[in-house]
Amino acid sequence: MRNLNQHTITQAVIERFSNTPDPRLKEILNSLVKHLHDFARDVKLTEEEWLNGINYLTATGQMCDAKRQEFILLSDCLGLSMLTVAMNNDKPQGCTEPTVFGPFFLEEAPQFNLGDDVANGAIGKPCFVKGNIKSLDGTPIPNALINVWQADADGNYDVQYAHLAHPQARGILHSDAQGKYYFKTILAEAYPIPSDGPVGQMLRATKNHPWRPAHLHFMVEAPGHERLITHVFRDHDQYLDSDVVFGVRSTLIADWTEQDDGTYLLEYDFVLNPTAAKA
Ligand code: BEZ
Ligand code: FE
Fold it and tell me: Which domains does the chain have, with CATH numbers?
């Protein structure tokens, strides 16, 4: 294996991995090498550009900590996150569609009772959210585990504040015996994703904005059903057709109606896919 050139090196690298015992790891490495080399040949990558790329990925890693995941943000803005969601969630017609998870979910969210205010002090216009959790055949799902999280009116998630005493605008609830859920929160508003790092640099270099249309995140789990990770978007938001992370689906857009008293109401039902009915 000497004197490799631009035409022979790809096969040589693939052969280097040929004894990989894990067949899936071998498949992924082979494909990665093939596409990475084809990419470099396709754009005729210069040595300077190679170093710029290495420096960019290094800066992306250096931006990551327990509260900031710049690599997920990069994957989101390159459409890789949404592609992976789309490929792995082929649900039957009628099920609620999933969308990107995003980097702001917290395992340790506070528990609330139905009707409570999950805003917990977060700034924003008052909003009431209610609906049903159902199985694909329409059967109500009682005691489903519902995680909700959202940004405040300033466009920040609680984890983006350095010194908050307690979590805000996130919580865990359970549907009642009839599969109903309801809670108070704040009105979701459009917000820009963090753009003070390498991902922001890429957005500016490509003349793209960093905004996500207003949305409320949901993760719904129930025995015998696939976990659903999704959002509900606000109709008429100006960024619905240019979401920076490509996450909008028409079926996830709902009316958040302003009430006579100036508060808002969102009604949305979630339909979970029974595990046995997996497409
Ligand atoms: C979010 O909606 O929380 C989000 C998703 C992807 C990237 C940044 C934020
Ligand atoms: Fe979000």
Answer: 91-277 (2.60.130.10)
